């Protein structure tokens, strides 16, 4: 089973940018659909974006046009480029992997804090 480690979080001012990375162990990374989720304090975890095994992407409405998800199968790594960050993007960001339709492998999360 793949294991996931996120990195790249931090503190940034509103309007700034960050790039999150999700490094996967194992040799089967390309067989997984990959996604980013986030959870803000006091709120439920929510979907942010995902990318299929063949590179098809989806985004939640609130990040469309500001965030870009990508993957590099040769490096076993997924990325989330986040531009024009807003205070409401503040959350713990998780990456996840799915063999089928359910995301059942999760990383530990990386904190993103956007100051106003």
What would the keywords be for this entry?
4-stranded antiparallel β-sheet; mainly beta; 11 strands; single chain
What does this structure look like?
There is one protein chain. This protein has 116 residues and is mainly β. It is built from no helices and eleven strands. The strands form two sheets. Strands 2, 4, 5, 6, 9, 10 and 11 form a seven-stranded mixed β-sheet that branches. Strands 1-3-8-7 form a four-stranded antiparallel β-sheet, with no helix packed on it. It is globular and about 40 Å long. It starts with a strand and ends with a strand. The model has no long low-confidence stretch (mean pLDDT 96).
Record field, number of beta strands: 11
Task: Provide the succession of SSEs.
Answer: EEEEEEEEEEE
Q: What is the beta-strand fraction?
A: over 45%
Helix count from the secondary structure assignment = 0
Low-pLDDT regions:
none
Distance between the termini: 40 Å
Mean pLDDT: 96
Radius of gyration: 13 Å
Shape descriptor: globular
Largest sheet: 7 strands, mixed
Helical residue percent? Answer: under 10%
Q: By helix and strand content, what is the structural category? A: mainly beta
TL;DR?
By secondary structure, the protein is mostly beta strands. The protein has strands spanning 4-7, 10-13, 18-24, 33-39, 46-51, 57-59, 67-72, 77-82, 91-98, 105-106, 110-115.
């Amino acid at each position: 089973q793949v294991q996931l480690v996120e990195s790249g979080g931090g503190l940034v001012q509103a309007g700034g940018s960050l790039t999150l990375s999700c490094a996967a162990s194992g040799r089967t990374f390309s067989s997984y659909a990959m996604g980013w989720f986030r959870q803000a304090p006091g709120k439920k975890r929510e979907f942010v974006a995902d990318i299929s095994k063949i590179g098809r992407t989806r985004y939640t409405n609130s990040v469309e046009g500001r965030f870009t998800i990508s993957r590099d199968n040769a490096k076993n790594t997924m990325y989330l480029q986040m531009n024009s960050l807003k205070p409401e993007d503040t959350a713990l960001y998780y990456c996840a992997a799915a063999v089928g339709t359910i995301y059942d492998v999760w990383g530990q999360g990386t904190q993103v804090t956007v100051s106003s």
